Amino acid sequence: MTRGEFDALCAARPGAVRSGPGELDSWKIGGKMFACWGDGEARATNTDTVVVATPDRETAEMLVEAGAAHWPPYFRGAWVGLTLDGLDPEEARHRIAVSYGRVRAGLTKRAQAELPPMEEI
Question: CA 68 to CA 45: how far, in whole Å?
Fold first, then answer.
């Protein structure tokens, strides 16, 4: 999977906005990040890596233990890093949908009401 393909999947989420110049290279919903580009491992190995939220810490641990993700520096809890090289497009679509849904659900009711309707994950 390429970075452009991953960005296109993020852009397809209702109300998703790419961060502006001078900000962390990320995708946001209601001003809150649901996908972030790069981490320490990416710089060390020169690979494209993106960080996304999982539903909970247990899911994050399972993904890391299975080798499908890694623990990204500077992120805690249920956030994991995904390496784009070899990432299945359907898996990427699912990880984006879950991260987006989790972050969107954490917005205030007022902020959620101002966003376009969300389709099912």
Answer: 17
Secondary structure (DSSP) of 51-78: EEE-SSHHHHHHHHHTTS-BPPTT--TT
Element (H, E) at 41: helix 40-45
Distance CA 84, CA 55 (A): 20
74: pLDDT confidence band, cut at 50, 70 and 90? confident
Phi, psi of 75 (to 5 degrees): -120, 145
Task: For 78-118, write each residue's pLDDT tens digit.
Answer: 999 999 998 999 999 999 999 999 999 999 999 999 998 87
Q: How many residues does the chain have?
A: 121
Q: What are the tokens at 110?
A: 């007022």
Helix (H, G, I), strand (E, B) or coil at 62: helix
Chain-centroid distance, C-alpha 48: 13
Judge contact between 21 and 28, C-beta under 8 A.
Answer: no
